[in-house]
Q: What sequence folds into this?
């Protein structure tokens, strides 16, 4: 394969996986630092807990949680190859962060204590079905920006200037 073909192939993979992510659940848009700090101040993450970020992008949420609670186990899933590789490389500096290449809709989340979601609402119906069969009753699921239509949040976290956080318990997905 020539260099030109190789570069074309790499660019194609980056663009195709980014397009797949945008079509599937959301394009890569990182949460703001102010938002991450608010989330961590309100959701009490304990040592030993297992935390997921579904669609982790470059891992900014994962690493903030890891600094806040070094004894939690933090896992991110990502399908867009470029943010995935950036997160994977950065995760080497954190012993408690694992970045996995995979479709967030196909993961087994039954050990989750906290799940973080920042995706478009088009993903919510599929996610709600996924959670209904798979997560613990007391697992906390934090949705950034938009609530789930027809499902009253257990807690709403609001602060000026940033997107709200809608928190649900696992049991709320089994109605
Ligand atoms: C709005 S960004 C949120 C990034 C990160 N969670 C944050 O808050 O900074 C959504 C991420 O989900 C990823 N994504 C979209 N569909 C996905 C899927 N089916 N499986 C895994 N990741 C996906 C996108 O590539 C993107 O990085």
A:
């Amino acid at each position: 394969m020539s260099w030109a073909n190789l570069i074309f192939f790499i660019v194609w993979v980056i663009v195709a996986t980014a397009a797949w992510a945008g079509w599937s659940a959301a394009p890569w848009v990182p949460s703001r630092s102010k938002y991450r700090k608010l989330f961590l101040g309100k959701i009490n993450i304990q040592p030993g807990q297992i935390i997921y970020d579904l669609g982790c992008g470059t891992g900014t949420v994962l690493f903030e949680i890891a600094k806040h609670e070094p004894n939690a186990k933090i896992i991110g899933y990502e399908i867009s190859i470029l943010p995935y590789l950036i997160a994977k490389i950065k995760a080497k500096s954190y012993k408690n962060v694992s970045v996995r290449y995979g479709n967030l809709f196909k993961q087994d989340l039954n050990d989750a204590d906290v799940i973080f979601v920042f995706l478009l609402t088009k993903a919510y119906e599929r996610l709600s079905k996924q959670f209904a069969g798979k997560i613990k009753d007391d697992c906390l699921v934090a949705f950034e920006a938009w609530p789930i239509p027809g499902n009253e949040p257990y807690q709403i976290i609001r602060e000026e200037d940033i997107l709200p956080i809608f928190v649900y318990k696992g049991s709320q997905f089994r109605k």
Notes: The CA atoms of residues 156 and 166 lie 5 Å apart.
